[in-house]
Specification:
about 210 residues; single chain
């Protein structure tokens, strides 16, 4: 039997348009991030994701091998988005280092309030679910937090150089404490549906750095 030139039947289905494929994949990621910031990983079903994204139910596995693989991509996507938010504040040379940290907390508070405190931090949410999550998530979540801490530590060290905070402060430990406390404040704000816990933490953290 002669071979039909120009037809690839190796996968049993027509090739997808690359632009459309990437567009739908990105849509699934955006919807996934949105749902995980509201409900977490365990409570978010794939049926809900594809329905909200308007993607045919049976096509999810054309974009991601599994829900676990999807979750890992969502962590990376959220981390990239959040890193840009941090850099916007922390690298703003028109503001002093402590003002940059304060600006980040103010902006984050506004974003949480915009969604009536129904959405939290995707990475923080996953950390609370860790006992029920795939083991592959653990180190990735830890690495994301460490990256955020490193950015905060760098900002604190700049504050030290400029005399904004005491040289006695351990910037590495203070940055770690910042994220432990900040994630807890977000959890409490979401629980109570109000900004009070965030405001209390912001005031306490900044005052702990001294005059």
């Amino acid at each position: 039997m002669s071979k039909v030139v120009g037809i690839d039947r190796t996968r049993g289905r027509p090739r997808k348009d690359p632009a459309e494929y990437e567009e739908r994949r990105e849509l699934l990621i955006r919807v996934g991030v949105e749902l995980l910031t509201e409900k977490g990983f365990v409570s978010t079903g794939l049926d809900e994701v594809v329905k909200k994204a308007g993607v045919p139910k049976g096509s999810f596995y054309a974009y991601f091998e599994s829900k676990e693989a999807f979750g890992l991509v969502l962590i990376d996507s959220y981390a990239q988005y959040f890193n840009s938010k941090l850099d916007k504040c922390y690298l703003n040379s028109s503001r002093s280092p402590l003002e940059r940290i304060s600006d980040f907390m103010t902006e984050a508070r506004q974003n949480l309030a915009r969604f009536d405190f129904l959405r939290g931090c995707l990475v923080g949410n996953l950390g609370q679910e860790m006992a029920a999550l795939p083991g592959s998530f653990r180190q990735k979540i830890v690495d994301v937090f460490c990256g955020w801490q490193a950015k905060t530590e760098s900002c604190l060290r700049e504050a030290q150089k400029l005399g904004e905070i005491s040289t006695d402060i351990n910037c590495e430990k203070k940055a770690e404490v910042f994220w432990i406390g900040w994630e807890g404040a977000i959890l409490r704000a979401n629980l109570e549906r109000r900004a009070g816990p965030l405001d209390a933490y912001t005031t306490d953290f900044l005052s702990s750095l001294g005059p």
